[in-house]
Amino acid sequence: MRLFEQRWAIRILACLHDQRGARFVVLKNRLELASESLSKGLDGLMEQGFVQRNPGYGHPLRPEYILTDAGARLGPWCSRFEDTVQRLRAADVVYRKWSVPVLLSVDAQPRSFTSVRQELGVTPRALSQCFDRLVRADLAQVQSGYATTSAGGLVVQAAWGILGSG
User: Fold this and answer.
1) Is residue 107 part of a domain?
2) Which one, of 34, 89, 45, 91, lies nearest residue 70 by Cα?
3) Tens digit of each residue's pLDDT (9 = 90 or more) over 2-58
4) What total of structural domains would you count in the chain?
5) Residue 30 sits in a domain of what CATH number?
6) Does the residue 77 lie in any domain?
């Protein structure tokens, strides 16, 4: 679940999987990220053991990054997740901090605001804003409680692939 807390982690893993490794500048341009955001994302993924610098590649000031064995197990799932999110045109919503945990929480059955808030430990304001974004993006709906839509279900299915492979 920590991967979903880091805004760029899934996208970085997907890109490294698809490209079979990449230099910093290639990742930065492909993902359209600021250098600082990419550095933080790569540092977090290296700390978690999913990414490493390619030990036998190039100049030390222009390192190439590759997936570790653990990252290689997640890579295909991250790539599928990214494909799903892009197909739904929902990246701006899905890659926010609470979006995927909230979708996972409400997928099995409609849930009340309070039960989701208590389960995830999210503040009422953050959860309210998250639900607003998810409903506007047609990824969640309000019935007798909050629930996923069919598009939200696709995101959840792709997320479970990542969680099941880790």
Assistant:
1) yes
2) 45
3) 788 788 999 999 999 999 999 898 999 999 999 999 999 999 999 999 999 887 666
4) 2
5) 1.10.10.10
6) no
* 51 within 8 A of 13, measured Cβ to Cβ: yes
Query: For residue 151, what are its two tokens?
Result: 């598009």
Rounded to two decimals, the pTM is 0.84
Residue 62: how many other CB atoms lie within 10 Å:
10
Residue 76: CB atoms within 10 A of its CB come to: 16
Domain span at 136: 92-165
- 97 and 67 in a single domain? The answer is no
